[in-house]
Amino acid sequence: QQQVKQSPQSLIVQKGGISIINCAYENTAFDYFPWYQQFPGKGPALLIAIRPDVSEKKEGRFTISFNKSAKQFSLHIMDSQPGDSATYFCAAMGGGGADGLTFGKGTHLIIQP
Amino acid sequence: ETGVTQTPRHLVMGMTNKKSLKCEQHLGHNAMYWYKQSAKKPLELMFVYSLEERVENNSVPSRFSPECPNSSHLFLHLHTLQPEDSALYLCASSQDLASAEAYEQYFGPGTRLTVT
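Above: the input entities. Below: the structure tokens describing the complete assembly.
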């Protein structure tokens, strides 16, 4: 049973455009929702994270939107740049770190110059 | 060294070999994790350690044996692996398991394992 569903699997966006990646979760015990960015040959790097007590969090060009009632959250990358081309993973965790992070399958993002 | 380091970065082993993966974190964290990243599948949690005590074993086959001698080092001992065990094995660390800081996990670059 996949507890975090991520879409799309791949995404191509023109330079300067907005990249949007969506995730949906099932476990209502989740209380922490991070996004990770992974480049080839590297481990995932924490990009931005949100708790369910807020509906939006912004850090630079990256914004998480969170809809608790719909059990959905999304990553928006504004003014997308070729250097943003990477694989993005949403994840969720609840009740501390003992259960680790539950990850989505990832989105391969390509920003075309 | 900074962050989380893993060695070796690449490993090829036969099904009858025994090898070990090493992870070291330089962040002063108290919790460490092993994840498996396979093609077409989400990252899967394998083991969780807090202050050298294992707190989670996520139904991982016994051919994978973790060891955490101290809060900075984590090993994954491998023996009698199968070709389907070929994957990227990622180590991560966090401050601890109980505080708000616990939620931020930092990953190493991974070990690319190929089982022949």
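Note for the figure: The longest strand of chain B covers residues 18-25.
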